[in-house]
Amino acid sequence: MGWIESLQRAIDYMEKHLDEPVTIEQIAKQANSSVFHFQRTFSILTDCSVAEYLRRRRLTLAAQELSATDQKIIDIAYKYGYDTPEAFSKAFRRQHGVSPSEARKHVGELQSFNRLVIQVNLKGVDPMKYRIVEKESFRAIGVKREFSLRDGENMTGISKMWMELNGDGTSKEIAALKDGEIDGLLGICTDYQDGKAMDYWIAAESSQQAPKGLMQLEVPAAKWGVFEVRGAMPDAIQKVWKQIFSEWFPSNQYENTGTAEMEVYPEGDPYSDDYVSEIWIPLTRKM
Asked: pTM for the whole thing?
C-alpha cells in the first residue's frame, strides 16, 4: 500500500467510526504507522491534530442532525461522544457560535468542516535542497523533557522550552559543548512511548561527558535526509516540513525509519529571511 493510500485509509476509518469510540492506536494501525508518526504526518499536512479533526467532524454531523431531524439533543450528544448535555453544548457553541437548541431553531450560521481527501501535488516549481548523509552514532548533550502527544500539547511545550533555555542561558552553555560535525543546536524528537508521550532534547553534538545539570543521548547510526531551510522561524521550517511529507516522500524511494528526528539551528538570527537551518530525518528504502 502506498503512503498516500495508507493515510487516506486511516481518514476513511475515522469517518466510518465518528459515531463510536475510536483510539489513535486503531487509527494509526490503518496507515501501518506508529502512533507518533501518524499524528505528526497528519498534523503537518492538515494543520490540525487527529483529535481536533474528529471533534470538528463529529460536531459538524451533530449540527446537521439537529437541523434536519427531531432527534433529542441529549441522544445526539451521547451519539458523538459527550457524556453530558453541558459538555456537548459547550463544545458545540465553541465550534458553531450558537447553542444546540438555537441550531435546531435555525438561529445563526453553522460551521461545516468537511471530510478530508488527501491530494498531493508534485511540483517542480519550488525545488527543495537536500542531501543524503551516512552518519555513525554520536553523542548529544543537553536538556531532555517529556511531553504528552495529546491534542498537540508537545508543540506548545517545546516552544516554551526553547524560550526558557534561551532566556536563562542554558542554550549558550549547551552550544559551548559543540565539537562534532553538526554545527548548531539540535532539537531532537525521540522515544515516542507508544504514541502517548515523547522526549524532546535541546542539545549539541559533543564527544565530552555531560556536565552537571545536563544529560547525554546516544543517537544511533543512520542514513539521514538533510533538508535545507532558508528563512525566518518558525514559518520557514514549518513550510519545509510540509513539503517533505506532501512532496518529497511520495516522489522518492525512501521512508522515515521512525527513530530520532532533528532540527539543526546554527548561530545567527533565526528571525532573519536569510537564516539557514536544517531538518534531519532518518531514512530507509521503501520495500
From this structure: 0.83
